[in-house]
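dumping this here so i dont lose it
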């Protein structure tokens, strides 16, 4: 109930948690951002101490008083260590790789102890997806946490709120804190598998490759001409036949392929069009030819390679200001 109330009132949640998202740079958990309450085991522990204290008073048991205060002191020490295990920790975020809709984004968090002692059993949980991981943070080093967050729609996906929790050392107290770093990942449209458009004089692979004179592949021998370079003369064949022959080579000329929004049927929805164009981009890149992308208000010149592929997919992901 409290969680639903905080979700409906972001300002109240920000005031309660002590920060305003998104938080840029390393996030340090100062003491006022760390909350601590007894666990169920802690409440049972407190009830046991109360029963021991009442029994020791009623029966004047010196050993009962000693045991009660000893256990009470251990509980207070455990409370201090539980809060200290989380306080003054620094959290920074790493780079999240782009994915396609329907996949999961791997958000990386780095927990820096910033103290001369270890911080065991730190649990990190993504509030939205409930993805979680438990790590130990050694003294003087940083531990990496990877949270898998489902990417349902294209566009920018923000990491959102993450809860850090610990119950070390006895499990009778629970200390936690919330962070919301300025981290996001790009989500491409879900690619649709379909054949590339059949433009004139182009193959289904995305580019027409026609033989032209060049220096790429050996194509055979022909009669020597005065304009031929001596380096292309087939001297071994000349020695066998006494005829001047020249090696002939062929190159490949690739026709540029345009992946155009206007090629798609108007009956398809926006997301369907983007998914099909994303599939065309992947198919054209596999085909090895040069390809360009045309969207309403956006045009990317033909090229090829990973950077060009990423540029085209980013334009599809952010189409319409998503």
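and the seq i came up w/
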């Amino acid at each position: 109930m409290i969680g639903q109330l905080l979700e409906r009132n972001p300002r109240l949640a920000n005031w309660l948690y002590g920060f305003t998202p998104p938080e840029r740079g390393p996030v340090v958990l100062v003491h006022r951002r760390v909350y601590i309450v007894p666990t169920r085991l802690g409440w049972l522990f407190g009830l046991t101490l109360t029963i021991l204290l009442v029994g020791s008073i009623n029966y004047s048991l010196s050993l009962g008083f000693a045991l009660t205060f000893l256990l009470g002191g251990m509980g207070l020490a455990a409370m201090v260590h539980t809060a200290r295990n989380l306080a003054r920790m620094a959290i920074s975020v790493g780079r999240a790789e782009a994915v396609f809709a329907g996949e999961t984004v791997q958000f990386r968090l780095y927990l820096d102890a910033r103290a001369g002692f270890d911080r065991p059993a730190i649990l990190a949980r993504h509030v939205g997806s409930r993805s979680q991981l438990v790590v130990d943070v050694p003294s003087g080093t940083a531990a990496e946490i990877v949270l898998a967050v489902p990417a349902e729609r294209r566009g920018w996906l923000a990491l959102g709120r993450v809860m850090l929790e610990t119950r070390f050392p006895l499990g009778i107290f629970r200390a936690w804190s919330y962070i919301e770093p300025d981290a996001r990942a790009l989500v491409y449209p879900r690619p649709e598998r379909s054949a590339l458009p059949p433009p004139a004089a182009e193959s289904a692979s995305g580019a027409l490759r026609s033989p032209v004179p060049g220096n790429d592949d050996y194509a055979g021998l022909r009669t020597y001409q005065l304009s031929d370079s001596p380096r292309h003369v087939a001297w071994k064949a000349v020695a066998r036949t006494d005829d001047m022959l020249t090696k002939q080579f062929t190159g490949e000329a690739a026709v540029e392929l345009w992946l155009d929004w206007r090629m798609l049927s108007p009956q398809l929805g926006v997301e369907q069009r983007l998914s099909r164009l994303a599939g065309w981009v992947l198919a054209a890149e596999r085909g090895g030819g040069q390809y360009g992308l045309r969207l309403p208000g956006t045009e990317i010149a033909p090229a090829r390679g990973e950077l060009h592929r990423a540029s085209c997919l980013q334009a599809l992901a952010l189409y319409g200001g998503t």
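The chain has three domains: 2-188, 209-254, 257-317.
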